[in-house]
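Chapter summary example.
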Amino acid sequence: MPLTIFDSRDTAYRRPFGAVASKTPVHFTIRLPKTIAYNDVQLLIFLADQWETPMAFPMENVGCEFSSNLYSVSFTPSRPNLLFYCFRVSESGRITYICKDENNLGTMQPYRGELWQLTVYDAAFSTPAFLKGGTMYQIFPDRFYNSGKPKKNVPTDRKLKPWGTPPEYLPDESGEVTNADYTGGDLKGIEEKLEYLASLGVTCIYLNPIFEAHSNHRYNTADYRHVDPLLGTDEDFASLCRAAGKLGISVILDGVFSHVGSDSIYFNRFGRYSSVGAYQSKESPYYNWFTFQQYPDKYTTWWGFQTLPEVAEETPSYLEFICGKEGIARHWLSLGASGFRLDVADELPDVFLDRLREAVKEQNPQALILGEVWENASNKSNYGKRRRYFQGKQLDSVMNYPFKNAILQYIRDGGGTSFLNQLMDILENYPAPVIHNLMNSISTHDTERAITALGGESSQGHDRTWQAARQELTPHQYATGKARLFLCCVLQFTLSGTPCIYYGDEIGMAGYRDPFNRWCFDWEHRDEDIFSHMQALGQLRASRREFFAGADFLPLCFTDSICSYLRILGEQGLLIVINRSAKTQCMDIPTQLHHAKLLMGHIVGIPQDPVTSVELRPMDFAILEGRWITPPAR
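The structure predicted for these 634 residues follows.
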C-alpha cells in the first residue's frame, strides 16, 4: 500500500478532529519514508489571507513505524481565528511541501499547493439547546393553511384567490412579476395544525417572513413591528408560540434585515403610509438608511430590484432600530419567538451581526441566530472580506446547503467518494456547537422540491413557462423521485445536524423553483408512503433526542452503490446503510457494534437477532441500533 503521509481526518495524524476551541492543543503527525534523511521538518501555519508570512514550527522525529519515520509537533492557537496549514521538509537543501490532494491526503510536491483548514472558535462559544436532536419544519405562511378566521385592516389592493389556485408567474401588463396573489394562509391556520406537526416529530417551526409586506413572500418588509394583517395579528403570533410551546415546539422567524420594500413605512415610494419615508423627503428619519445616487429615483437596491431598496445596515439609527433596547429583535423575542433565520446573512456586515447577537442573547441566551449561507460558511469571503460567522460572536449555525446538494447529487447520480468528501468538509471545518444546530434541508422556498429534483427533468436553462408545464411529474418520474426521496430522507434525518422538512414534502408535493415550489398545501390528498416514512424518521429522532443532539459521525463505506456510517454517543451506536443501486448489496456489521437490532428499513433473508450482516434490496435502507464497544488503544 502507498504510504499515507498525512490525513487530517484521522486522529493518528491530527488530533483532535475538526474545529477546535481557542487554547486547545492540536497535535500533528506526519509519516515520511525511512529511505530519505530529512534534516528539517516543519509545520507551517497561515492566518487566512496572509499567505506569504506563515508561522513555522519545527517537528520532532518521534520514532519509526513500518517503513516510515514519524514527525510530530503540537500547536496551541491562542485566540479565535481562521487558520490554514501544510508541512515543509528539507533534504540536502531541497525544499518539498506536503499539501492536500483531492482526497484530503498529504501529497509531496516542489511548490506550495492546497492547504488544510483549522477553524479556531471562542472557547466560551455555545449554541442553543432547543434545536439539537429535534426536527424542524419550514412553512411558507400564505400557502400552509387558511383558518378562515376574519381579518382586520387588510389592504384593499390584496388579490385573494381560492385555495389551491396555481401561483401566478407571468408578468403583469406593466411587465412585472409582482407576487401579489394571495391564498390566505394564516397564523391561526398554523396553530390549528400543530398536532399534525407534532405527529411528525417536529420540535421547531421556521416561518418565512410574517412582518407586514405587500407580496405573498413578504421579503419586501413594509413594517417590522407588526404581523401582516392577512396573516393575523401580533397576538395571533404570541398565541401560536404559546400553543406550540405546550407541545414542545419552538418558533423561529425569518429576519429580513438587508433590505426593505419600496412600499414600506421606511421608504414609502407610493405614499401608502402616513409617515414620511426616505423617498419623500431628505428630512425623513429613515433617509440615512438608504443610499441615493440621484434623489429620489436612483438608489441602491438589492440585486437590482427597484422594489427592494437596500439598507445601509451600519447606519447607527438602523442598528438601534433593529438591535437596540426597544428594537425589533427584542420585540419579537418578547412575543415568543425562539430566534431568527437571517435572510442573506452573507450580505449583513460584521458590525450588524455583532450587534444583533448581543441584542438577541441579552434578551434570551437560548435564542437561535441561524444564517442563510449557501456555501461553506466556515471560510466564506464576500465583497472582498473574509467572514467570521463561527468564531463565537455572530451566528449559531447556518442553513446547510452543502449537505443538501451532496445528498441529492449522491442519491441521483452516485459518486460515493465525492459525497463523503463533501460531508467531511463541513464536519471537519465547522465548530461542533454549530454542527449540532445545522439546518439540513433537501427542499426550500428557493430551490426545487426534492421529489422534482430527484425524478423530474433538469430545469437548467428553462424558463418559468417550461417549469409551469411540468408541475405534475409523470407517473414514471414520480415513482423514481419517490424511491430516491426515501433514501434522501434517511440521510437527512440521520446525518449530523437537524433535518428540516419543507412544508408539503412529506405528502409528495412536487414543483420546480419559485413560485412552483410554493403551491398551497394539499390537505385533501397525501402520499401515505412518504408521510409514514418521514413520520417514522421524525419519531425515531424524538425517541432518541439526546443521542442525535451530540452523536459523533463515523464513515464506513461510501461507493457508487452503497453508503454506510455510524452515529456514536458513548456506548450507543446507530448504523445507517443505504443501497442506491439497482442490485442487491451486502455488508457486514462492524464487530464493535454488539447486539444490533433493526429499527427501520428492511434486510433480505431470515431475521437475525442480533444482526451480524445486512443484505439490502435495490433502493433500500436499514437503520440498526446496538451497543458500541470501542476497542482498547494499542
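To summarize the output: The chain has four domains: 14-121, 136-258+313-543, 260-297, 552-628.
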